[in-house]
Write a structure and sequence with these properties.
The protein has 511 residues and is an alpha/beta fold. It folds into 2 domains: 192 residues, no CATH class; 285 residues, Glycosidases (TIM Barrel, Alpha-Beta Barrel), CATH 3.20.20.80. Helices cover 55% and strands 9% of the residues. The protein contains 18 helices and 8 strands. An 8-stranded parallel β-barrel has the order 1-2-3-4-5-6-7-8, surrounded by 6 helices. Helix 5 crosses helix 6.
């Protein structure tokens, strides 16, 4: 467990070291009199652009800043191609030791290809399957080597390496070059080994292409969307304007937000004003109490501060008046990643105290709990929550693909089916989170993943609604709206599902 905690920050630290090395070495190569003019120009251009291109690549992955730099988001794939050309040029002209020139050239070419494909996907273009497999394999390798969050988090990427032309003058320099060539070889081999996984992942989304929604004539199934970044400070105006407009376009029956425990009363008041019109329109509001530090890699687990969270729950209920409150986001999913693996009695005690705190302010509020890991710990927590003596009013699930694609969704829904068969639902159920990864498996996969879960959920009378994650890309590439403001293909599927259920039909919409 300790090793897995250190892998993400270690990867990011290594990326930073490589970028510094690229800049320093590129400058030296450009000043070598013996360097061919074209090679010196390529090296100098690579070193000059790599840092600003990296900044643009990270800034262009969120709705908050993406639109401002929309017209220069091509710079990162362009720099990847420049590095690949520099590495191949160095190898072809024999100005680099093949021992480290070959691994670096292969690595640069592979990530350049994946970067170009990712850029195409970000613009709404569906790459041909062989190219999409390269992107999917790279994402799978990153998630396997660092953390599962890497599948959607733009911080986790592969940075290019400059080909170290001309002999090393010191033993330390030669050793460092050998180390980086080993890293490049490791990533190239890792991506190659994930190609079979990528093939299965891309194909897995087709298995449910003909699935249909189940008619709910009582109109008792609500569909909505999660809004805003996790709220710890006032939501940025672009997020508020864009997300509320999207909720209105969708005519969402329900909206969800995630609030961090140290949120202030002033921020909650600002959030209440933003949500006022939705609540006036009788839109169901689901509030989840999340965690700090979900996007940046954590160096250690942070203890679950029960007292602070209970105080936050009272503030949230008093100011936002949610219909449904989840006192903890995915206890054995993101919760375990950030606060560690708590034993079942610890979570039971916390949820009991949280329910009492919330209902001491508003007796009408309903308390929810979401399972996301679908393992033995989640199973035990679900069984406890389903019991008549537990304070949980609504049970639910969070469904997202992983590096295996929709194969993971199938496994999760089968597990949920078994749980509901063992403990026949006496309480209402929801899908509290569902989504896909348009920049990992393509936009069509995101739409199909959401449709698959909708088809599964509507087939279960006990399940009364589903929240799609999320309105926009906020540090994770899984939004219905791209950073440029363009509505992704999945939005059409969600709108089609809402229309189909309201019209009591079971016809799959044509996107």
């Amino acid at each position: 467990m300790l090793t897995s905690v250190w892998l993400p920050p270690a990867h990011l630290a290594l990326c930073l070291v490589i970028v510094v090395w690229d800049i320093v070495l590129a400058g030296r190569i450009a000043r070598v009199p013996q360097a061919p003019r074209g090679f010196a120009a390529l090296s100098g251009l690579a070193g000059l652009l790599v840092l600003p291109a990296l900044v643009v690549a990270l800034a262009s992955t969120t709705v908050i800043t993406g639109r401002a730099i929309l017209y220069v988001d091509w710079i990162w794939p362009a720099v990847l191609v420049i590095f690949a050309a520099q590495a191949v040029y160095a190898l072809a002209r024999r100005v680099v030791n093949p021992a480290w020139g070959i691994p670096i050239a292969i690595y640069d070419v592979v990530i350049a290809g994946a970067g170009v494909v990712r850029y195409m996907a970000s613009r709404g273009l569906e790459p041909a399957q062989p190219f999409l497999l390269l992107l999917t394999a790279q994402t799978a390798a990153l998630s396997l080597a660092t953390t599962q969050a890497a599948i959607a988090n733009p911080l986790y990427l592969n940075v290019p390496m400059i080909a170290p032309a001309f002999p090393a003058l010191r033993a330390v320099t030669a050793s460092f070059r050998a180390l980086l060539s080993a890293v490049a070889l490791g990533w190239s081999v890792g991506i190659a080994f994930q190609l079979p996984v990528a093939i299965k992942a891309v194909r897995s989304y087709r298995a449910h292409a003909s699935d249909r929604l189940t008619e709910r004539p009582e109109g008792d199934f609500a569909i909505g969307v999660k809004l805003f970044p996790d709220v710890g400070s006032p939501p940025p105006p672009p997020a508020v304007a864009g997300d509320l407009a999207l909720a209105d376009t969708l005519t969402a029956d329900v909206v969800g937000i995630v609030v961090v425990p140290d949120v202030t009363n002033a921020v909650l008041d600002s959030l209440a004003r933003a949500l006022d019109q939705l609540q006036r329109d009788s839109t169901i509001l689901i509030v989840t109490l999340g965690y700090r530090g979900k996007l940046l890699p954590e160096l250690r687990h942070v203890p679950l501060d029960t007292r602070a969270r209970l105080a936050a729950i009272r503030r949230i209920v008093r100011r936002l008046h949610p219909d449904i409150l989840l006192p903890a986001e995915d206890p054995y999913g993101v919760g375990e990643r950030l606060v560690g693996r708590l034993q079942l009695p610890a979570w039971e005690e916390y949820f009991t105290d949280a329910a009492q705190a919330a209902k001491s302010v508003d007796r009408r509020i309903r308390i929810g709990l979401a399972a996301s890991a679908f393992d033995s710990r989640d199973s035990a927590l679900y069984a406890w929550a389903a019991g008549p003596a537990s304070p949980i009013d609504i049970l639910g699930f969070s469904f997202f693909p992983d590096r295996r694609g929709a194969e993971a969704l199938d496994a999760y829904t089968r597990t949920a089916d078994r749980w509901m068969a063992v403990v026949p639902p006496a309480k209402q159920h929801w899908v509290f989170a569902a989504g896909g990864y348009p920049l990992a498996h393509g936009e069509a996969s995101q739409a199909q993943a959401i449709w698959d879960i909708l088809a599964w959920a509507t087939a279960h009378p006990a399940i009364k609604g589903m929240l799609v994650y999320e309105a926009g890309d906020y540090g994770q590439a899984r939004g219905l709206r791209s950073p440029s403001g363009r509505l992704r293909e999945a939005t059409i599927y969600v709108m089609g599902a809402m229309r189909a259920l309201r019209e009591a039909t079971i016809t799959t919409p044509t996107p």
